[in-house]
Amino acid sequence: MSIPTPGQPVRGSKTGVPIMALFDLLGRTWALGVLWQLQDGPYTFRELQEKCESISPSILNSRIKDLRKAAIVERTLDGYQLTARGHQLVTIIRPFGEWSREWAKEVFHLPEDATQATEQ
């Protein structure tokens, strides 16, 4: 399976507008989890698998391959790490985490300690 590509049909967009291609890519199983863990990288494959806990080796391999093709992750001598573009993306995603904690507290009445656990 190829990665979602701007300009080509993707989930949610027949024309493949760039934002929908990105959402399609990030919506794949474990894509955001891998991205999130790599913000503290680099990590070897095994280290990254341990960080992601329940991820299978085949899914991790697929997500790394997808994120590398999208120039969000790169392989170095020390393992896998975010590219400059990947770091930029994580910086953009962090406010979603803040928004989601407020949403969880206000709409679903989750206690503060329950909303903090989602950051890890």
TrEMBL record:
> Which keywords appear in this protein's UniProt record, sorted alphabetically?
DNA-binding, Transcription, Transcription regulation
Q: Which CDD domains match?
A: HTH_ARSR
Gene3D superfamilies with a match to the protein in the record: Winged helix-like DNA-binding domain superfamily/Winged helix DNA-binding domain
A single MF term (Gene Ontology): DNA binding
**Transcription regulation listed as a keyword:** yes
Q: Which residues form a coiled coil?
A: none
Name the domain of life this protein comes from: Bacteria
Residue span, HTH hxlR-type domain:
17-108
Is DNA-binding tagged as a keyword? Answer: yes
Q: Which SUPFAM superfamilies match?
A: Winged helix' DNA-binding domain
List the protein's name: Transcriptional regulator
Q: Which organism is it from?
A: Candidatus Moduliflexus flocculans
Q: What is the lineage of its organism?
A: Bacteria, Candidatus Moduliflexota, Candidatus Moduliflexia, Candidatus Moduliflexales, Candidatus Moduliflexaceae
